[in-house]
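Researcher: Let's do a round of design. I'm pasting the structure tokens now; please hold your answer until I've finished.
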């Protein structure tokens, strides 16, 4: 019999991040996955700045940076002509220590997180599936089935579904993912190709009938191609690669010659979200809670963000540092972002793939102008970076945010990143727990909702001047949550 306060089902990026977060607080848990190990597929490529900031707090950002690379440009190719080449390299300069679009395959992200868990003294029980679950008087119980057919009973207080789009945990809750499915079929393919253009970033090829995107990968001529399958393909799960090769070479509107391929897949694109990310003491996290088109490079990053949000709250309750009502704020904070994400990615994806005349006109005439213009101006470049990088996610309406503010910075916002000679603001936030920063005023009492580890820092010049320039109060204190969001501004 396995008895644990927390059972995490699924060790994709989301479950691995949740386990690493719980280890930061020494919180007992068990994590299982039915697969034999981490994914061998490239899957998600884009690692957004907010994820790298979270990796930095975990101490694994340097390793991630060593292994991946920055996408330097995006080239817009309309009806076969390069219409714009837009630099992306430092698009978020001054906003994040990682002011770019970073590329690192999902398999490598999972390896980094798995190594972190091992360094923290933990491990994943691979080859172990959740096969039965029921509610009990104190929590949940059920059966875990190992790859050799042997079974273990388990009991847990908190059951966490990080088990992907077909989540067994969500099925146990009888909670559907509501939303829709795009009528057209989508493909991804990791290919080596000769295209006659320098390999330095993303290629977006748009024409009247097609949309294709090419994302740089690690080998010299390797790209991830994404796009819509030809209507002759009806079974997305069994596409011969030659069909896809012909489709890409003929329809991208670029002189592409495919010379190799390592993976391809076809699938239906869903835009769906669970009615609630929490039911009793069951939580849905990552793809188990929301799924959408991979075109915006948000899926893996959103799952990682969910896990960071839930991790410290679960630790707080299991370690008796907070009242259990703090757990309500997971759904309160993360579901609104999920709803917005599913809606915007659905809208963007539909415009990119639709065959109707208006969408075709938007794709080939309006979009290049909007994107080309927006990416030329500093204000719109910064806004685009803030949105795609996920650094703009804020929890102003959460019951953990008290409505306090200092100029444009509100309780619930991500704590801003800024530098001064010899330091930067994120170095204050590396220890697990709350951080209370005092800018020339008396330190406040410990935050009401948390009695766990707390770091108190008195901030002097030049850091205090840099903080004021970033929008923080000259005299006052800031209470920062363990996930680097502001809880309170005492001015
Ligand atoms: C081709 C492609 C490209 C993508 N590109 C991007 C991108 O650029 N950027 C981005 O952010 N996202 C991207 N995504 C999305 C991203 O891959 C997913 O959002 C991400 O994998 C979700 O992580 P997860 O841990 O929530 O779920 P998953 O990765 O699906 O992991 C769920 C885990 O649960 C396990 N499991 C399931 N059922 C059980 C059970 N009963 N018992 C035990 N274990 C179980 C599974 O074995 C699996 O390991 C892409 C996806 C695809 C397919």
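Researcher: That's everything. Go ahead.
Model: Designed sequence:
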């Amino acid at each position: 019999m396995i008895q644990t306060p927390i059972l995490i089902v699924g060790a994709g990026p989301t479950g691995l991040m949740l386990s690493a977060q719980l280890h930061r607080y020494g919180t007992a848990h068990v994590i299982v996955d039915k697969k034999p190990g981490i994914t061998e597929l490239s899957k998600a490529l884009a690692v957004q700045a907010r994820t790298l900031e979270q990796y930095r707090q975990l101490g694994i950002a340097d390793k991630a940076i060593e292994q991946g690379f920055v996408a330097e440009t995006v080239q817009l190719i309309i009806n076969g002509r390069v219409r714009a080449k837009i630099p992306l390299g430092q698009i978020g300069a001054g906003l994040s220590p990682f002011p770019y679009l970073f590329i690192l395959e999902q398999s490598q992200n999972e390896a980094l997180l798995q190594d972190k868990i091992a360094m923290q003294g933990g491990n994943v029980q691979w080859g172990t599936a959740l096969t039965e679950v029921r509610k009990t008087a104190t929590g949940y119980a059920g059966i875990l089935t190992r790859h050799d057919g042997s079974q273990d009973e388990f009991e847990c207080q908190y059951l966490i579904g990080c088990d992907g789009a077909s989540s067994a945990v969500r099925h146990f809750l009888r909670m559907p993912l509501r939303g829709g499915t795009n009528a057209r079929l989508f493909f991804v393919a990791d290919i080596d190709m000769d295209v006659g253009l320098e390999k330095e970033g993303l290629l977006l090829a748009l024409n009247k009938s097609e949309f294709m995107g090419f994302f740089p990968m690690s080998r010299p001529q390797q790209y991830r191609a994404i796009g819509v399958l030809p209507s002759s393909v009806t079974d997305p799960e069994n596409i011969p690669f030659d069909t896809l090769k012909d489709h890409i070479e003929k329809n991208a509107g670029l002189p592409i010659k495919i010379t190799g391929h390592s993976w391809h897949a076809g699938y239906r694109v869903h835009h769906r979200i669970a009615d609630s990310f929490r039911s009793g003491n069951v939580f849905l996290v990552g793809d188990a809670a929301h799924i959408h088109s991979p075109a915006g490079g948000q899926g893996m990053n959103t799952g990682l963000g969910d896990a960071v949000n839930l991790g410290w709250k679960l630790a707080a309750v299991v370690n008796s540092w907070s009242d259990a009502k703090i757990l309500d704020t997971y759904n309160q904070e993360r579901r609104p972002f999920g709803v917005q994400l599913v809606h915007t990615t659905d809208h963007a994806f539909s415009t990119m793939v639709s065959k109707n005349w208006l969408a075709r006109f938007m794709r080939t005439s309006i979009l290049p102008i909007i994107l080309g213009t927006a990416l030329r101006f500093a204000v719109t470049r910064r806004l685009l970076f803030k949105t795609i990088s996920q650094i703009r996610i804020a929890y102003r309406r959460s019951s953990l945010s008290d409505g306090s503010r200092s100029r444009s910075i509100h309780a619930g916002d991500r704590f801003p990143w800024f530098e001064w000679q010899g330091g930067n603001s994120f170095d204050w936030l590396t220890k697990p727990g709350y951080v209370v920063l005092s800018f020339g005023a008396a330190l406040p009492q410990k935050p009401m909702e948390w009695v766990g580890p707390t770091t108190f820092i008195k901030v002097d010049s030049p850091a205090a001047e840099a903080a004021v320039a970033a929008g923080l109060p000259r005299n006052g204190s800031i209470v920062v949550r363990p996930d680097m969001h502001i809880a309170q501004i005492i001015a």
